[in-house]
Each structure stands twice: as structure tokens, then as C-alpha cells.
Amino acid sequence: MTTTHSLGQAARQILIQNDKGCYTIPTKGLYPYQWNWDSAIAALGFAEFDITRAWIELETLFSGQWSDGMVPHILFHQPDPGYFPGPDVWGCDGPIPSSGIIQPPIAASMARRVWEKDTGAGATHLTALYPKMLAWHRWIMQWRLDRGAVCTTHPWETGRDNAPDWDKTMARMDASDVGEYTRRDTTHVNSDDRPTNFDYDRYIKLVQLGRNLHWDQAALREQSPFRVADPTMTFTTLGAARDLLAMGTELGFDTTGLTEDIKTLEAGAATLWNTDLGAFDSRDVLSGEWAGCVSSASYLCWLGGIDSDQMMDRLRNTLETVPYPVPSNDPDSDTFDARRYWRGPTWAVVNMLIGLGLEQQGHHAEATELARKTGALISEHGFAEYFDPLSGSPAGGKSFTWTAAVWLAWAGRT
Ligand code: 2M8
Prior knowledge:
Layout: H1 4-17, E1 34-35, H2 36-46, H3 51-63, E2 74-75, H4 87-90, H5 107-117, H6 122-143, E3 145-146, E4 149-152, H7 167-171, H8 185-188, H9 197-212, H10 217-223, E5 228-229, H11 231-251, H12 258-270, E6 273-274, E7 279-280, E8 283-284, H13 309-321, H14 348-360, H15 364-381, E9 386-387, E10 394-395, H16 401-409
Antiparallel strand pairs: 1-2, 3-4, 4-5, 5-8, 6-7, 9-10
Helix pairs in contact: 1-16, 2-3, 2-5, 2-16, 3-5, 3-6, 5-6, 5-11, 6-11, 11-12, 14-15
(2R)-3-hydroxy-2-(alpha-D-mannopyranosyloxy)propanoic acid binds next to helix 2.
């Protein structure tokens, strides 16, 4: 019988095996570099048994910060031909070879939680990290707002690569001149579980555009066909702003502007409420069109400190009716696909972020129920990258860092 203790041991082993010394890869083969939000989650997992290593993870992430404050979504510490697109395709010149886009800015919120667990040198580590985290927040506020909501300029930025949220925007894009390239992801895992070639052409096309514009945000704002205000970016930025304000106040930093930013982002979050859908939704900034998607990111409102009775009703219904919640796409939607990456599967990492938000907002019963269900899913089906929400079957990469970290920091504790 697998016990909670032995699962804890297995989860630690995964973190240790995926540890490259000062950063952690998400999984061997498929993802051989340091990913931004994966790394923040890894730090939380390490904090359960090696607090110094947790800080090192975050410090390495911010060692890749660009001089303008941006923190890239991938840091290519060591070349690896097993992943495409690599540093040569992105053409960036930060301090460490990197991609030119961001990912959900959860690092500040995770740093605050690591700090809470650190009774020793935590304040010293955090004091050094704080100005860097604040600079990234300011970069987002400067370049990515639309009516106060935070926009994504590439599906990969949200971490929800092929979510149906982007379908209408992607359908309008012409990628006929993208040229020849070879995908590597489908050599590691089943292609039926991955984004389609249609989507990949557009992912690469957007990388080519950014590179041609030297990742100049003002030029991208003018010229990119992809600009979508999204719940993932908006709620994680809002949560981070609140955590930056709390940490800055406690550490004695100048927090001028953060209260204003929080108000701006709250107003932005309100612009993501799709009344017809009855949920937080993504909004194409260029066409003004709603995506019409209830995704797992819609439930990140609580992480952003925003309460919603309607989202709570939906969540309760999802917890009761979906065998392995929370699905990344509404099972009643035409676009739902139980296996294809972010078009239906359940991701333990998003569940934890929803759960932490619920807890923060005082919704203890729902937070506990979600943690319990996520724990059962992992103990029955292992530390997979993601899971079929109807059958629970594991999919994608195996021995996945963030699923192990989620077990250690949250789901295995119920
Ligand atoms: C997936 O995204 C990468 C691109 O960033 C990919 O498919 O190649 C997403 O699941 C993303 O959320 C995650 O951070 C990354 C690494 O686990 O993989």
C-alpha cells in the first residue's frame, strides 16, 4: 500500500532528481530548462525539506532578469537539442540565454510563502529578492495593461498553451510563411495529448515576430496580432501585487504605487467578467471579442483576492460533478478534450493555486475539498504532468516537478 509517507518520499526524490544544482527542470526529456512559474512552484516544494535550496531556486530565476525588469519564461542554462524552440530561435540578449516572453508572475506570492516557512535567513534572502520582484511587477504594469487587465502576447505566457481561449485569435493569424521547423515535444510524449501543428505554427510565428522586433514591447503592442487580456495573467499579477505590498511593508521597503496598482488591477479583473457566460473569461484586445471559455484560470479569482458568488457556485458544482476536478476547460463545452493538454485535463498545479486563493479568502471547506481530491488523484495516478479529469489517467511528462511540489506543499498535507 502506498502511504502518505512514501508518497512524500517519492515527491522529494522527484525534486532531487530534477534538480540541476541551482534550478529545477520540470521533467527530464520534454522540458530540459528552467521554466518561470514551474520554478516558483518548485521553490515551494523545496521549502518543505530544504529551505536554502528553495531560495536558491528563486534567486536563479531572477538571475535571468533583463535590465528592464522582465523575467523570461525559460532560462536556457545549458544547451539541449531535445527542446524546440531553443535560444537560437528566440534571439534574446538577457544575462542568461532565454525566451523573450514571461509566464504567470507567481514568484512573489511563492516567495512570501517560502518566507513564512523560514525562521532563519528568510528575511535576508527576501530583502535581496524584493527589488527584483518589484521591478518585474512594474514591467508588467508598464507594458501589459488593457483597461487594467493584464494581457498576454503569446499563448505560452499564460502557461495554458493550447487553451481554447486563444482559438479565435489564432484562427485570424496567418502563419503560412513560418518556414520549416521540427517539433521536439512529440518525440517525448503522445502527439494526441499535445497542441496541434496549426497551433505550433502560430506559436513559432509569434516568436519570429518578437525576435524581428527585438522584443521591443512598444513595437509588439503596435504590431502583434496576439494580445489577449486573460484571467491567468490578471489574477496572478493582482495576487503578486498584494503580496508585494504586504512583504514590502513588513520589510520596510518603499511600496509607493502598489496600492494604486491593486486598484487598477481590480478594475481590470472586473473587465474580464463575461456576463453572458457567467464567468471570468479571456478578452481579445484587438477584436474586442470574448473567448467564451470557463477555464481553470477563471477560478484563480480568489488568488487575486477577488470573491465571486457565481464562481463559487460553479466551483461547488465542478467539485461535485467532475470525477477529477478542476478541468482546464468546461466539460460541457464543444472545445472540451479530456486529453489534449490545456483543453480539458486537470493540472494539480492550477488546483493548488485555486486552493491557496480559496484559503486566503476564508473558503476553508472548498479549499480542503479541492486539496483532498487533488491528493487522491496524485496518490492513485502518480506525479504526472496532468490528468484526464474524467478517468484520472495520467498524461504528458512523468515524474513532474510541480506535481511533486504540489503534493509536498499542499495536496499531501490533507
Ligand atoms: C508547457 O509549456 C511549454 C512552453 O512554455 C511547452 O509546451 O513547450 C506548459 O504546460 C507551461 O505551463 C509549463 O510551464 C511548461 C513547463 O512545464 O510546459
